[in-house]
Amino acid sequence: MIQEKFIITENKPLNAKIMLMRLSGNAPDIRAGQFINIKIDGLFLRRPISVCDYDGNEITVIYKIVGVGTEKMSKMRVGSALDVLLPLGNGYDLSCSGDKPLLIGAGVGIPPLYYLAKRLIAQGKKVTALLGYHSGNDVFLRGEFWRAGARVLAVTSDGSLGLKGRVTDHMADIDYTHFYTCGPEGMLKGVYEKSVTSGQFSFEERMGCGFGACMGCSCKTITGYKRICKDGPVLFKEEILW
Amino acid sequence: MVDTSVDLCGIRLSNPVIPASGTFGYGYEFAELYDINMLGTFSFKGTTLQPRFGNPTPRIAECTAGMINSVGLQNPGVDKVISEELPRLSRFFNKKVMANVGGFSIEEYAECASRLDKCDIVGWLEINISCPNVHGGGMSFGTSPLAAAEVTRAVKKAVNKPVIIKLSPNVTDIAAIASACEGEGADGVSLINTLLGMRIDLKTKKPIIANRKGGFSGEAIFPIALRMVNDVYSAVKIPVVGIGGVASAENVIEMMLAGATAVEVGAANLVEPFACKNIIEALPLTMEKYNINSLSEIIGGANG
Ligand SMILES: Cc1cc2nc3c(=O)[nH]c(=O)nc-3n(C[C@H](O)[C@H](O)[C@H](O)COP(=O)(O)OP(=O)(O)OC[C@H]3O[C@@H](n4cnc5c(N)ncnc54)[C@H](O)[C@@H]3O)c2cc1C
Ligand SMILES: Cc1cc2nc3c(=O)[nH]c(=O)nc-3n(C[C@H](O)[C@H](O)[C@H](O)COP(=O)(O)O)c2cc1C
Ligand code: FES
Description:
The complex is a heterodimer. By secondary structure, chain A is an alpha/beta fold. Chain A has helices at 68-74, 111-122, 142-148, 185-194, and strands at 2-13, 18-24, 35-38, 47-50, 53-54, 58-64, 81-88, 101-106, 128-133, 151-156, 163-164, 178-182, 199-202, 218-221, 224-227, 234-236.
């Protein structure tokens, strides 16, 4: 982990509640599924956000405005500096993807899967992305997955775009060797129950530090206690206690 | 050259800055960032006789200029700390460390402290008496002078190294409790532990912390901590370690003027991982700015 100042080069809305922020600076190597912890002026705790894309010295994050911190982030100006701790967490293990990995995400669980998709595709894997949104108006990143070379299946709750229902309703129709997932806990649990292969889940927890020092984010797993921020956020299906 | 060194219960510290228990783990995460040998020492995660998972999550809630935690003393238990954590620590930390001890009965405190007392790397035993007494209706040992005295007596009997009793601020008269500990031979006191606090999520209308409430700490508590340090300093002769909201070299100096011999830094480490390094590096210039040649000479200066 390092502490680094990044310059905001872009901060734009993708839809009513979701923003994309691009940061430029001295980024160390980042693995798919890792996150950064952002200092926000006037707030005590940093805000953990997953890396959506990374290319050496530029980091992209996509965040949803849900409270005071993300609200402040949405008002940050291009050109201003951001104090960031990174890279944090274990990230996804790409080595067990098999030939046909399935990426399952919903809402702001989708962004970290984009960087993962790019990495897997670069390794010659046939990636399917099953992406869940509320409605057609909320859709973001779908085109980027497609342009990166993934087969994309969008699912909306109201059926206004793509398939109708929940992402977990459509898993059975897909042939996959391993899965990677990130999203709301209810969806993760659904994936846990419906999945027919091994896979990896990315979890969220309220964090004090984000780098393993405070035990604020611990959870129990089959292999013992784990800190979501340091030993996670990615856990394998086989170690999850549900 | 200014002199930042202080003497804490017979052990010389190159500077008074000590990361507080529970905010520095066993040092590894920070050792990856900077050479932690620059610290005066640090107090490791509260250790109990048995392993503990601690409380359910969410354990963390944000507050204005601070945070609430309800970790619940998660730790691998004293035997694992001694067999795994301390040997690993000794590979990159060549100073004496402060062993923070938690307990739920008098016997447990004494037994846990006695096992840590035998470890070479341990310099001091810091006894956290904010834990609930399972035999005392769950009331914390730290809220009664009698119970605090009892813990002190039992621990002092069980160990040879200096014993620092870490006091709870959730009391009406913290100086009376400090005096009770001094009366049983405590070598020092450290204060304050966290203040009981609570936050409610307006969206769910329920407490944010799974255990409803937790310990409030961070910059917001500095004035309260400073006042309590001064109250205790005025009441006892043993060294006082000042804790609570410290985030700058100025705060360290202020704590020492109030009566602290050394100063612990807690929550600041979590949000600013280089906090202690930055404070230590800023100390000499800050001392010069305020015409201070030697930190040990200013202890309790505000009372003079
Ligand atoms: C590892 C990880 C990766 C994440 N990646 C993303 C991402 O890529 N995009 C995105 O939009 N969101 C992501 N989140 C969630 C994001 O951290 C929260 O939405 C954000 O912290 C909310 O801050 P706020 O001040 O706007 O909300 P508030 O509700 O005002 O925040 C109050 C406190 O609660 C914490 N908090 C609130 N919601 C969450 C949550 N869901 N998870 C953890 N802490 C929370 C905040 O950090 C803050 O400390 C991630 C969370 C984690 C743990
Ligand atoms: C996440 C967290 C965990 C803590 N764990 C312990 C502990 O195990 N033992 C202890 O004596 N104090 C513990 N504390 C209290 C701190 O050591 C310190 O007394 C308190 O936080 C006040 O200092 P601060 O305002 O600088 O944080 C903890 C504090 C925090 C924030
Ligand atoms: S948030 Fe501090 S250990 Fe995970």
